[in-house]
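pls design
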């Protein structure tokens, strides 16, 4: 780009109130990232208005919070949407408060329902602004709140103060609580809690989640149970009502899918093993593909966890479970090649170290970025570290192993988790199916 502040096509609020692209623009106050940097992959292609000045800081914050790369991009785009609305409202950065931000989301969702999924990322941007001291306290205008509004406000304060919930959760709670409380509000000005029973709550839930994904349905059910539990604690409904709320079934969008041998080879081939960074990345890829460890387990590995005599690796899995994993020859060789050139701060015991100062241990996000970067170089779009975990599991089964071995290697708490791979390992299942026309 000739202009370092140019970030692509602009997004503004049109005459009909919707957000629309209106061509090229220049965003002042924040230089765009250099070509090829990891910031560039998620930098918005829309005008961010007043938020352009903090966009780089927002990206760094998202990484520090541990958000996945796809989520980072979605939230950066949400920041651009929020910034363009601020331009239309003639708001500066110091003028924004949470209520105004959420009002934008509500109005945009009402006019353009197709924007609702994208707008769900706005509360995370508001949380960033609040935590960095840039979100103004909302002006409190004294009004006579209805019983439903007053009850909703009390519940939201309970979630924020007593449970420590963030802006995003409060926003979702408002979306669930407001229509529910309106159902039991009388025109005379009181809430009829005696109307609330299990059947009524489930009827509301089924209507509220119609057309939404299973994850959104699960979240809505959790929030509704929370509201009813809070109401029961106040003596307004019976204790058992919250327990009777349905639990929507989780639907997997796809089956666990590993990489083929050629894809793993292509991933390794994308690494330049000439220096410390390349050897580090190769060791991480080999370890993930052969042992099926999680990203957090790789990031948490220390020099003290490597037993060269056995040889084995000690990793701490979910729930603090300690796993002792055998060290295959190729994993050991890759680790030796890297550790010989490993550079770290004095006293740093983490195995995998950042490539730039300070030379501290990589975090989970750093490990994820390594796999994502080399997968793209290898032409494998949409491949993240967890795909290598699936690869290790499918290789065990393809080599004649059983589900108990998958459980022990991957550190599953129960065999049921490992049995998920029965749906994708078709070769050993095929002999169990009788031939067509030969049913007993």
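designed seq:
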């Amino acid at each position: 780009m000739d202009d370092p502040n140019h970030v692509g096509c602009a997004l503004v609020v049109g005459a009909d109130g919707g957000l629309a692209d209106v061509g090229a623009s220049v965003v002042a106050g924040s230089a765009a990232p250099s070509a090829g940097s990891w910031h560039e992959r998620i930098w918005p292609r829309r005008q961010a208005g007043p938020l352009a000045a903090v966009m780089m800081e927002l990206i760094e914050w998202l990484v520090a919070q541990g958000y996945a790369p796809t989520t980072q991009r979605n939230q950066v785009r949400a920041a651009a949407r929020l910034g363009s609305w601020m331009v239309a409202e003639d708001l500066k950065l110091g003028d924004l408060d949470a209520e105004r931000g959420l009002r934008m989301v509500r109005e945009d969702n009402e006019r353009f329902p197709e924007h609702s999924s994208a707008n769900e990322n706005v509360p995370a941007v508001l949380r960033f602004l609040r935590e960095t001291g840039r979100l103004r306290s909302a002006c409190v205008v004294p009004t006579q709140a209805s019983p439903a509004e007053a009850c909703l406000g009390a519940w939201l304060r309970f979630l924020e103060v007593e449970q420590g919930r963030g802006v995003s959760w409060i926003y979702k709670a408002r979306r669930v609580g407001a229509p529910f409380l309106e159902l039991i509000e009388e025109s005379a000005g009181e809430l009829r809690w005696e109307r609330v029973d299990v059947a009524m709550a489930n009827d509301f839930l089924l209507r509220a989640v119609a057309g939404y994904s299973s994850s959104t349905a699960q979240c809505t059910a959790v929030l509704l149970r929370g509201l009813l539990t809070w109401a029961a604690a106040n003596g307004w409904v019976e204790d058992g009502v919250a327990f009777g709320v349905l639990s929507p079934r989780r639907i997997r969008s796809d089956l666990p899918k590993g990489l083929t041998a050629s894809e793993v080879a292509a991933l390794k081939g994308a690494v330049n093993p000439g220096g410390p960074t390349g050897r580090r990345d190769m060791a991480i890829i080999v370890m993930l593909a052969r042992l099926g460890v999680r990203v957090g387990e790789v990031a948490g590995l220390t020099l003290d966890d490597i037993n060269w005599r056995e040889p084995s690796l000690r990793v701490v899995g979910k729930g603090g479970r300690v796993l002792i994993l055998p060290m295959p020859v190729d994993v050991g060789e890759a680790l030796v090649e890297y550790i010989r050139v490993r550079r770290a701060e004095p006293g740093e015991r983490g195995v995998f170290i950042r490539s730039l100062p300070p030379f501290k241990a990589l975090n989970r996000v750093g490990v994820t970025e390594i796999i994502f970067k080399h997968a793209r170089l290898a032409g494998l779009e949409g491949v993240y570290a967890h795909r290598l975990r699936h690869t290790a599991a499918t290789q065990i089964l393809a080599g004649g192993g059983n589900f108990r071995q998958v459980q022990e290697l991957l550190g599953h708490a129960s065999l049921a988790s490992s049995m998920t791979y029965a749906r994708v390992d078709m070769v050993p299942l095929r002999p169990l199916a009788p031939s067509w026309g030969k049913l007993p």
